[in-house]
Amino acid sequence: MAETFSQLLQGRLFDALAKTSIADDLPDDLDLEVSAATNPQFGDYQANAAMVLAKKVGKNPRELATEIVESFDGSDLCETPEIAGPGFINFRLTTDCLESRLTKLISDTDQLGVEPIENPQRVVIDFSAPNVAKPMHVGHIRSTFLGDALARIARFLGHDVITDNHIGDWGTQFGMILWGWKNLLDQDALEKEPLEELVRVYKAVNEKQKDDDAIAAECRNELVKLQQGDEENRKIWQTCVELSKNGLQKIYDLLGIEFDHWFGESFYNDHLGPLVEKLIAENIATESDGAIVVFSDGSSPEKEDPFLKNENDEWVPQPALIQKTDGGFLYATTDLATIDHRIENLKADAAWYVVGAPQQLHFDQIFEIAKRRGQDIDLQFIPFGSILGKDRKMYRTRTGESVGLIDVIDESIERARKIVEEKNPDLSGEDKAGIATTIGIGAIKYAELSQFRMTDYIFDWDTMLALKGNTAPYLLNAYVRTRAIFRKLGNEFEGAAEISLTEQAEKNLALKLMQYGESLPTVLEDFRPNLLANYLYELATTYHKFWEACPVLRAEGAVRDTRLALCELTSRVLKHGLGLLGIRTTERM
Ligand code: ARG
Q1: Is the CB of 126 under 6 A from ligand 1?
Q2: What is the pTM of this model?
Q3: Is 353 in the pocket of ligand 1 (CB under 6 A)?
Q4: What is the pLDDT of residues 499-517, one digit of tens each?
Q5: In this predicted model, what pLDDT tens digit does every residue of 230-248 receive, in sequence order?
Q6: Is CB count within 10 Å lower at the N or C end of the chain?
Q7: What is the DSSP letter of 359?
Q8: To test the ligand 1 pocket, which listed residue (124, 359, 367) has its Cβ within 8 A of the most ligand atoms?
Q9: Which fold has domain 447-580?
Q10: Fold of the domain built from segment(s) 122-165+265-384
């Protein structure tokens, strides 16, 4: 499909400016903003160009706006633009233009009016990444859902996406797990619920070693043996990792999430020693008190230097530790090796890390090291905030433990089942179960993805499962309504012989549908799937208004065709957009 309205209007605005008295004063990198109007009173699109430019060249903004409008040539797109307030230029699209665009949109079945991006990259997206034998808690919800949505969106927009689950399958927790495996393991439980049993063992040992120095020492000893390649410990470790991966895979299957790779931390073990040697040779790392660390090289202003911190008004070193005095390597060392692998083996142009905000410093430091090494990769940290309980504290179970993801999923499905039961008691048990799963999982995903990622949001069942408001059930219900029309019709959509937009509610919906292609690319500007969620919410609201104002099946001729087309397109865009958020749709609910 051709350019979006906002791009088309931008082009025309540019042409108009070239005919005004300030034509020679226009900056080379002129970036004109034409955005969808927030209030229909101001037309469909709005430009602030006259105000921005008037300021630059010292002119009156309203006068400049008048000049622009006089030179503006866009009768094939919109009515004569209007000037409002301090110098806004407002555009109202013509019905003809909306109609011809709508016709094109109907046949654009794959792209739905979304243009692929101009500079596709090969992007590794690093998300989810739970730790073996530790429960995958709700904090991982954010990474998992955000990462998956970003991967789907980036792929659809044309990036070559590689998803990598960088699981924590190596590290100090294995000392405790090994000791627990040898002393506390319940074989039966392990066979039945491996993930739970591993977590139980880990927690039990963790408690025991706190006030028993002998056990703590034995745990450390188990870890050293593992690191030195002890055969028995290697085998147990391997089994734990396998069991964990299988357990996690079941959760991902339920959630409909796939990874291209699971290069866990252990994958890089053999690279860590040589990498540290290299970093020393490159003069990036140095020895300090027997450990190997990276200090500031003084190249950035103190405030922006991740290797400095401010203590009592003084800048003091905050080095990154990459090898401990006992020779052990760290989280940062593994992440540096991971960058090498992504550049050399995966040929990545970019890597996006969807990890909680508390790890900001870690990523600032390793990104800075990559920069100092002259590594050619666009590294992006995509942080997120916390999930809170209704008491505005970290979301926890009643007993104060962190909530397991699987429990959240189960409860959501259970609650969704009650909704389906009430709404549609006549469905078969199997249908009810399927629909409840779709709504239940959709609801937790949407609760996450409809928020700006840095917002600490409150995890509240009643809000996220409500049929009204910005929720998954509301959007799914809008989709169900579009499908119900075709069920009643007894036919799938078969194209529209003639398009004729008569009512304002139809035009609003048509325009909204055409804005999918404007809205979607903005998600990647700052990694905000909530912009897509908001768009879909607005689309659903616009659709509901249309549905109330415009009878579809009772209409005739071109009006009926057009309305059916609007229903069909709403159905397509909702399904597609929710799909990009990782949310499945249902035909009934
Ligand atoms: N396993 C880590 C955690 O749970 C997250 C890993 C994120 N990815 C990375 N490349 N460091 O905190």
Answers
A1: yes
A2: 0.95
A3: yes
A4: 999 999 999 999 999 999 9
A5: 999 999 999 999 999 999 9
A6: N
A7: G
A8: 359
A9: Isoleucyl-tRNA Synthetase; Domain 1 (1.10.730)
A10: Rossmann fold (3.40.50)
